[in-house]
Amino acid sequence: MAAYWSFLQERSSDILHALGQHLALSLTAILLGTLFAVPLGIALVYNRVRWINVSVFFVANLLQTVPSLALLAVLIPLMGIGTKPAVVALLLYAIMPILRNTYDGFESVDRNVLDSARGMGYGTMQRILLIQLPLSLPYIMSGIRVTMVYIISWATLATLIGAGGLGQLIVSGMAVNKPELIVTGALGAILLALLVDQVLGILEKWLTRRFGGARRMSI
């Protein structure tokens, strides 16, 4: 244990750099995924053409089935190596769970509440922003939290295309047969996922209290 502690002290700058890269990569992918999937999920709720919904969910499901390495291999000829293809790959994996939870969250809102709001003169955007979105927040945040944990795990493979991150420690450890690097990279990803999940849980509670209260006041 003392030897491992000494190793952490000696390589602290490299570990922190890899951790920072990993976090930036994961947060960028989840942010872009949320900005894309949430509006798309809302649009699908209001879309009346069934085959469009079926097609969108089919494509999103299909992306989830593509192996990570295969997806990275496809993106390399198109985008080269580095951070950009890694972010795109993680973004594609992030879409489905956030999209599904957003859609299910909006669909779960009581129709009587929406009819009452419509009777009070609420327009479509008012119903979305003041009623459906606040009531759907637990669903949406649940999708984001689950996706974030997966993204942090998948991001370890980003090092294979030169994007860095904690995966670099694991790959380097395997290359030079240094278990300390492998353990540090794996533990770093696990602890990062747990920490981010806790932070998102706190954010979820804050958003629910804030916008839930605003919704009740508006009605």
Automatic annotation (TrEMBL):
TM helices/strands, residue ranges: 23-46, 58-80, 86-103, 147-169, 181-203
Family to which the UniProt record says this protein belongs: Belongs to the binding-protein-dependent transport system permease family.
Organism whose genome encodes this protein: Paenibacillus sacheonensis
Protein name: ABC transporter permease subunit
Highest taxon above the source species: Bacteria
Subcellular location: Cell membrane; Membrane
Keywords of the record: Membrane, Transmembrane, Transmembrane helix, Transport
Protein's membrane topology: Multi-pass membrane protein
Residue ranges constituting the ABC transmembrane type-1 domain according to the UniProt record: 19-200
Chief location category: membrane
SUPFAM superfamilies, alphabetized: MetI-like (SSF161098)
GO CC, one annotated term: plasma membrane
GO biological process: glycine betaine transport; transmembrane transport
Pfam short name (any one): BPD_transp_1
